[in-house]
C-alpha cells in the first residue's frame, strides 16, 4: 500500500489556482521531496494531505484514508507527524513541557527525553521556548513532529534557519527515522538536502509537477552532457590535446561530451605517454540545481 496517493489534485483559492492536476505516490518507508519556487503550491499540497486544508478536485489518500474525511481525521492525526513552516507554541513553557504535552495526544509516543536528545536540545530541556534561538526553535518544531512516533512525517522546510551543523544533525535524524521505516514527505529549497535525503523528488512549477524521479536521474541528469575540466600542463597548448575543447575559463580547459569514457581514455593515455599530469582534473554531470533552474525558469 502507498503511504500517500494523489490523483489529479487541484486547489483554487477563489480565482487563484494554487495546485492543478497534480498526481504522485509515495511508498511506505520512502523519503519523497517536493521542490519548487516560492508559491508553487508545496505547502498547499502538504496541508491537503494532512487534512488541514480542503481540496477543490481530485483523489487523495494518506495512510489509506481520505484526509478530508472527518470520521477518520482523528485516527489519521495520531499516525502522522507534522512540522509546519512556523509553529506557534506557548512561549512560557519549557522545551520538556511542550513536548510532554504533545506526547499526551498520541497513543504510543516516543519518550520525551529521547526526542530531546534526538533533536539536540538536551542542554535546553528546561529552557523556556521564548529563550530559544531561531535554530533551536526549529529543532523543537522537529521534536514536536516526531514525538508521536508517526508512521508518516511531513516536514515543510525542516532545516531553514539551521546552521550547517544543525542541518547535518537534522539529516542524520531524518535518515535514522527513514531507516526505521518512517515515510517522510519533505519540502525544501536546498538541492544538497534533496541529494542527501530523498529517494525520489518531484519538481513543482506554477501549480503543476514538471518533473519527477530520483535525484540522480531528474531531467535526464544521468544520461546528459558531462563536463571535463583541467588545467593545461606547462608548455602544452589546447591544440596539442588529442580531443577538441569547448573553451577555456579560469585557467581551465573545458570539454563537453555525452560519452565521457572514450574521451577520458584518450586524454589519460595521451598524458601518461608524455609523463604529464592534468592538474585539477574534474568530471561533472549537470548538477541538480542546473536541472531545477532549467525546469523552473524556462518558459513553458
Ligand atoms: P513557499 O516555497 O514560499 O513556501 P509554496 O510552494 O509552499 O511556497 P503555497 O504556500 O502552497 O506555496 O502557495 C501556493 C499559492 O497559493 C501561492 O500563490 C499563494 O499565494 C496561494 N495561497 C496559499 N494560501 C492561500 C490562502 N489561504 N488564500 C489565498 N491564496 C493562498
Q: Concise description?
A:
With 300 residues, the chain is of the alpha/beta class. It has helices spanning 42-50, 70-77, 95-103, 112-118, 134-146, 164-179, 191-197, 260-273, 288-297, and strands at 2-13, 16-27, 31-35, 57-62, 80-83, 152-156, 183-187, 200-205, 208-213, 226-231, 247-249, 252-257, 282-285.
What can you see in these coordinates?
- Helix content is 31%, strand content 27%.
- The longest helix has 16 residues, at 164-179.
- The radius of gyration is 24 Å and the shape is elongated.
- The chain has helices at residues 42-50, 70-77, 95-103, 112-118, 134-146, 164-179, 191-197, 260-273, 288-297; strands at 2-13, 16-27, 31-35, 57-62, 80-83, 152-156, 183-187, 200-205, 208-213, 226-231, 247-249, 252-257, 282-285.
- The chain has two domains: 4-218, P-loop containing nucleotide triphosphate hydrolases (Rossmann fold), CATH 3.40.50.300; 220-297.
- The two termini are 34 Å apart.
- A six-stranded mixed β-sheet has the order 5-6-7-3-8-9, sandwiched between helices. A four-stranded antiparallel β-sheet has the order 11-12-10-13. A three-stranded antiparallel β-sheet has the order 2-1-4, covered by helices on one side.
- It has 300 residues and is α/β, with parallel strands linked by helices.
- Strand 6 (152-156), helix 6 and strand 7 form a beta-alpha-beta unit.
- The chain is built from nine helices and 13 strands.
- Adenosine-5'-triphosphate is lined by residues 13, 16, 18, 36, 38-44.
Please give a handful of descriptors for the protein shown.
binds adenosine-5'-triphosphate; single chain; 6-stranded mixed sheet; 300 residues; 4-stranded antiparallel sheet; Rossmann fold; elongated
Amino acid at each position: 500500500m502507498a503511504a500517500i496517493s494523489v490523483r489529479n489534485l487541484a486547489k483554487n483559492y477563489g480565482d487563484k489556482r494554487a495546485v492543478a492536476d497534480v498526481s504522485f505516490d509515495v511508498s511506505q518507508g520512502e523519503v519523497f521531496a517536493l521542490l519548487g519556487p516560492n508559491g508553487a503550491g508545496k505547502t498547499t499540497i502538504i496541508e491537503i494531505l494532512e487534512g488541514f486544508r480542503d481540496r477543490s478536485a481530485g483523489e487523495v489518500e494518506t495512510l489509506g484514508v481520505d484526509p478530508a474525511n472527518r470520521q477518520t481525521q482523528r485516527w489519521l492525526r495520531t499516525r502522522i507527524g507534522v512540522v509546519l513552516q512556523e509553529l506557534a507554541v506557548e512561549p512560557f513553557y519549557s522545551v520538556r513541557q511542550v513536548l510532554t504535552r504533545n506526547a499526551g495526544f498520541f497513543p504510543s509516543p516516543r519518550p520525551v527525553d529521547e526526542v530531546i536528545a534526538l533533536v539536540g536540545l538536551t542542554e535546553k530541556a528546561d529552557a523556556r521556548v521564548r529563550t530559544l534561538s531561531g535554530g533551536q526553535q526549529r529543532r523543537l518544531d522537529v521534536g514536536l513532529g516526531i514525538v508521536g512516533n508517526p508512521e508518516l512525517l511531513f516536514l515543510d522546510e525542516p532545516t531553514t534557519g539551521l546552521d550547517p551543523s544543525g542541518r547535518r544533525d537534522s539529516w542524520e535524524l531524518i535518515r535514522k527515522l527513514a531507516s526505521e521505516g518512517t515515510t517522510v514527505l519533505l519540502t525544501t529549497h536546498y538541492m544538497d538536502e534533496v541529494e542527501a535525503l530523498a529517494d525520489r523528488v518531484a519538481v513543482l512549477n506554477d501549480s503543476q509537477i514538471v518533473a519527477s524521479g530520483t535525484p540522480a536521474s531528474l531531467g535526464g541528469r544521468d544520461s546528459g552532457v558531462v563536463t571535463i575540466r583541467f588545467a593545461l600542463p606547462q608548455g602544452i597548448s589546447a591544440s596539442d590535446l588529442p580531443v577538441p575543447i569547448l573553451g577555456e575559463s579560469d585557467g581551465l580547459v573545458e570539454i563537453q561530451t555525452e560519452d565521457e569514457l572514450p574521451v577520458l581514455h584518450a586524454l589519460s593515455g595521451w598524458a601518461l605517454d608524455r609523463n604529464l599530469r592534468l592538474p585539477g582534473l574534474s568530471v561533472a554531470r549537470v548538477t541538480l540545481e542546473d536541472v531545477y533552474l532549467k525546469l523552473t525558469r524556462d518558459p513553458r
